[in-house]
Specification:
Layout lengths: L1 H72 L7 H13 L3 E8 L4 E4 L14 H8 L6 E2 L3 E2 L6 E10 L5 E10 H8 L9 E6 L4 E5 L14 H9 L2 E7 L6 E8 L5 E8 H4 L1 H17 L4 H31 L11 H11 L10 E8 L2 H8 L1 H17 L7 E6 L2 E7 L3 H18 L13 E8 L7 H17 L5 E3 L4
Parallel strand pairs: 15-16
Antiparallel strand pairs: 1-2, 1-6, 3-5, 4-5, 5-6, 7-8, 7-11, 9-10, 10-11, 12-14, 12-15, 13-14
Length: 494
Amino acid sequence: MPVLWLTGFFTVLVCFSITSITLWQLRQSRAHELDIAEINAANLSRSMAQQADDTFDQADIPVVGIVERLSYDGLGAASSSRMHDYLRATAASVEQIQGLFIYDKDGNWAGTSMNHIPSDANNADREYFQFHKAIDSTLPHIGQAIRSRSTGDWIIPLSRRVNDSAGHFAGVVLATIDLSYFDRFFDRFDIGHRGVITLALADGTVLTRRPALENVRGASIADGELFRTYLKEHYEGTATVRSILDHQLRIYGYKRLDRYPLVVMAGLSEEEVLDEWRQYAWRSLAIIVCVVVANLLFGVLLFQQIRFGLNAESQLRIASHSLEKLALQDGLTGLANRRHFQEILGLEFANGGPNLHPLSLIMIDIDFFKSYNDNYGHVAGDKCIVAVAECIRSNLNRTGDLAVRYGGEEMAVFLPYSEAQGAYALAEKIRVAVLTRGLEHQGNPGGVVSISLGVYGCAAQACPTMETFIERADAALYRAKHEGRNRTVLWQEA
């Protein structure tokens, strides 16, 4: 009898253990499927963000060139045959550009890549024209999707302001990006039957969406949980939310572009993600019925397999942590990257509150760097960036100071617990160090590589937001470049 009782107890214990372990495994595998879906959604959003960045960069490059030519030659050059040939050739060479246009200060067509200018054509009522007319900014402006008046196609306008020699508004240069270009790119991704890919402005206005919904272009999703909650806290990440447009529960990867006011989102239907898991769960439950009447070996092997799976998951977390550390450093210069910079500033301005101690920021830009790249090549350009980064690093002597590659040839130095005058003195040391380096630059009036620096410092509780903190340092940098480059300018309220 004791042996029978012991056998029965052991049999019940084995059945209970196997059942419990299997149910736990199903729960873990469900979580694992959702984790993989989050990773896939995040990778997809990053891929689309990179493609969108490249798309707008390729469209913005000729716009910048046209603005520069008009700034030197005057808007009268827009109607020349040479400019027309240039516009046509450029529009034809960039796949996503549907057309290039130049408007004078009254909105009249001064130049276009089209074969002819329509009579009485005027675009003064367009949002992008009104924006540039009202705001004196040299940055590119991206408007919401509109129908082209010349072709009737849906396009995204990318435009820049043109100033005359006196700095007054002289007109607008516009590149229209064919919206179908993004549709074709989105069609390459397998997102399931209920997945979604969305490109929107930073204010939540939808530019394009796959799959398309009726009247979705121009609709606002700013009231959705993704914009209302997650994008306010982080410019990049994942979230499981219900869509405000079709109310589907999806696992979203989202990312706001670094250089343009755009957001890309890739959503995978949670129901579709778990379809295979449900099938696996039902099969596992059916197998349990057979396993509980099998011998102990099956239970031991199953336990070993689960332990192996946990070890693999632990190693994956360790590897993921190592990759995350690498992601905080710029690969070319060894300085902190922009993501690290945003995280550090996020700690200083926690929960959107003001700074609790003095802060200073130096924004740095290499003078005439495009000319340097054109004359010496991109490899030499990278070496030039590295040399400037070394000059910055060699002049930092405090533990808390952070040198950052902000983007391209632009760098920054964040100085916690530092007043504006101290930051200005450090900026001058860096500027002189770069000049002393004596890197040849024939495109620079001084003959050597130089830098322009903008400095902003604020006392405790004096800088209300992180965005204001960065904008003021950037404004000082813009002032330094505007005043002739190779100088340091300290931001002042006036």
